[in-house]
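Dear V.,

Thank you for sending over the compound details. I've combined the ligand you provided, pyridoxal-5'-phosphate, with the protein sequence from our construct and run the structure prediction for the complex. I'm sharing the raw inputs here so there's no ambiguity about protonation or stereochemistry in the SMILES, which I know was a concern on your side last time.
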Amino acid sequence: MPGPAQSRSVRIAMNAAAAPREAPPAGPLTPTGFADAYREIGAWPAYAPTPLTPLPGLAAELGLGAIHYKDEGGRFGLGSFKPLGGAYAVARTLARAPAARGIADVAAADLMAGRHAGDLDGITLVSATDGNHGRAVAWGARACGARARIFAHDQMSAARRAAIEALGAELVICPGGYDDSVREAFRVAGENGWPVVQDTAIGDYRDVPIDICHGYGVIAAEVLEGLAAGAPPFSHVIVQAGVGGVAAAICARLWQALGAARPRFIVLEPDNAACVTASLEAGRRVTLTGDTHTAMAGLACGEVSEIAWEVLATGADAAIVIGDGWAFEGMRRLAAPLAGDPPIVAGECAGGAVGALLALAEQPALAGALGLDGASTILLIGTEGATDAAIYAEIVGRTPAEVAP
Ligand SMILES: Cc1ncc(COP(=O)(O)O)c(C=O)c1O
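Below is the predicted structure of the protein with pyridoxal-5'-phosphate bound, written out as structure tokens.
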């Protein structure tokens, strides 16, 4: 929600442990896992690739070679990229659940088409969310025919709560922040023997977060198909990080596919919840304490997932940390673009990607340190559309329908 004094801070951190360009990809995400997820998700009834939109007007204004915006706002009609991971993991988790008899070898596409709903009645899946992940899990559970109980913190907006409940999930509001709701979800699931579908890897809890990352890899797979069809390569990619899952997925997938020719990988975080950046600076996984609230709701995380860290510790070249004010600026700029660029409805996390470039344009030394110049071709991930229309209108001054009729 826009507050009276939105921070317009910006800083960067270079990763001293970044792998040399020729180093082989690191981490637990595998080419086979990515390929399986792409094949499975590509067979879902509602699957369609999201657009990759060039923004030549913005690139010219900022003195950059090219900017391309991968717009995840329309993904499955759910407003963000999250179903790629959350719903894919729902299907994979259900196929593994001991209570789900006889569906161990069933394809995710068959589960998502509801062909085994009768086998899943009575199974409750549990998750915690800042909004988008819970909506994705609720959607996947409903499509498969299972139940979902979603835990959320008490600062989550009314519209985001309603979007989860509209998908038939039971929503439980807990005190504290996102990380507290994750702990509560695991506690309740453990007491009841319910499967958890969470994007944070902690200790032995790895299979589901790995599935989620492999699902997110579809974003990179779609970008790679464009490159294979002759699109010019990217010199830089900027990806937002909450627990780091989507950043790790895109980093790993591009690294595996492009090797030494992969783009420079920059993680984007809010100044209040920069847990990946703090970890890169410390050279080890750091947990932030204190208030991690940010208007970029999906990024309000104080702990980077262990799986994400295993990729980003060497796969990230740098991080950029911005205040919420830049995210709002990015949303407004996408809504009212310069000549030549189409208007785009972007939520707070997505607006942050453009906001980061606007912030860097005012700080040439930082842009130079990241190697950004007139030859740079930049891939931005527009991770969400207007996932809360009222908040969007308050920030941008127009409704989503007025911006992109
Ligand atoms: C819109 C949006 N962008 C980015 C992210 C960050 O994803 P991750 O938590 O995998 O880092 C989230 C997470 O919820 C999100 O909802």
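A first observation: The chain is about 45% helix and 15% strand.

Warm regards,
I. M.
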